[in-house]
Amino acid sequence: MDTNDLIAEAKAKFSHNSTKAYLRDKYNSKLIIAEQGGLWKITPEFISFLASVYIPNDVVIMDLYESPVKVDRTKFLNKAVNTYTSVMNEYHKEWEKLKKNR
Fold first, then answer.
1. Rounded Cα–Cα distance for residues 18 and 22 (Å)
2. Where are the domains of the chain?
3. If you average pLDDT over residues 51-70, what whole number do you get?
4. What is the pTM (predicted TM-score) of this model?
């Protein structure tokens, strides 16, 4: 391998890693939603918490700004699951394209 090949390989790896970081940031930002008077980051743990609370409707939880917000648990859980699923499906499609371009 000569120097030009090594430089090209290093640039390709850097570009790939930069694109991975860009995708991660892009889709992490899409998981932050404003809902029912609060700002929330939708994560699998947050969805699990909402699903495991045994209170039928209204529950008070802390948002990203650590403000207590009363939310309708059932509606919020549905919104969180739908948001997480759609964002992760988009992320997966772009990830597969990135893997092919590698």
1. 6
2. 3-101
3. 91
4. 0.80
